[in-house]
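RECORD TYPE: inverse folding
INPUT: structure tokens
STRUCTURE:
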């Protein structure tokens, strides 16, 4: 029992001497850390505002601001450790060794981060663009270092690891998606009149892009109809809504203009045996 009390007294004495000798250093280190975090946050906000003023992409702006914040915090942490007499050299060596082992164990994760950095710097697409990649189509909602988040008209979120994006063929239609339709009209009708009627009908649809005008023309000649091809651009976030409105408007306009849309017909001849 006496031996345990002596050990406790020794530990208490050691702790007391440590705080007496290093109390001011510890207090100084805490103050440095607090001020460093505040400065890092302020600098990050300033850098982000500068990037916005320069009209940089939102993803690139966030990346630059976050990088500047992490850099300042790392420098402040090194200064704070030196303030309490802790050398950072062994930590750097240990971090290097751990990084090598972690790199081998997390090749997939690191490849995602590397691909994410490539996307942020090269900017093959930005937030708000509509991309088609790996058989998936959606509007870019967020771009992170590890993954890219897409969303569609139904608010379904699609997460794609960045390593599956870099090196692949990417279709980028920006904020819109192409709608392709085909309407068959009778051979007795004037196709030029039908083209005009459809073009006028599309002008009544509010969400259809005006920058890229709709294309309407004769697509091909079917067995029982002249097929009119229709191509227009609609916002990705209301693609199907716009497409369905356009179909209804086209149908009503053709009916009002007495332009018929025939159904497929087949002529069947039955040949009897000769007596």
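DESIGNED SEQUENCE:
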């Amino acid at each position: 029992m006496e031996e345990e009390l002596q050990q406790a007294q020794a530990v208490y004495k050691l702790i007391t001497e440590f705080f007496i000798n290093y109390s001011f250093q510890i207090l100084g280190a805490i103050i440095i850390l607090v001020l460093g975090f505040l400065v890092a946050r302020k600098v990050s906000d300033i850098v982000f505002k500068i990037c916005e003023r320069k009209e940089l992409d939102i993803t690139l702006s966030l990346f630059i601001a976050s990088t500047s914040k992490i850099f300042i915090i790392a420098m402040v942490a090194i200064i704070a450790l030196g303030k309490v007499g802790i050398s950072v050299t062994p930590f750097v060596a240990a971090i290097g060794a751990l990084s090598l082992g972690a790199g081998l164990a997390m090749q997939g994760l690191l490849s995602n981060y590397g691909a994410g950095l490539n996307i942020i710097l090269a900017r093959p697409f930005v937030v708000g663009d509509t991309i088609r990649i790996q058989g998936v189509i959606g509007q870019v909602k967020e771009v992170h270092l590890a993954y890219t988040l897409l969303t569609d008209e139904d608010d379904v979120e699609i997460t794609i690891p960045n390593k599956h994006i870099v090196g692949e063929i990417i279709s980028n239609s920006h904020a819109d998606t192409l709608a392709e339709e085909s309407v068959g009209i009778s051979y007795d009708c004037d196709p030029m009149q039908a083209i005009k009627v459809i073009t006028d009908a599309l002008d009544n649809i509010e969400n259809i892009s005006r920058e890229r005008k709709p294309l309407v023309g004769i697509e091909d000649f079917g067995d029982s109809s002249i097929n009119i091809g229709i191509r227009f651009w609609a916002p990705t976030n209301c693609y199907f809504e716009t497409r369905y409105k356009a179909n209804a408007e086209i149908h009503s306009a053709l009916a009002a203009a007495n332009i018929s849309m025939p159904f497929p017909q087949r002529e069947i001849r039955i040949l009897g045996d000769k007596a």
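NOTES: The longest strand covers residues 176-185.
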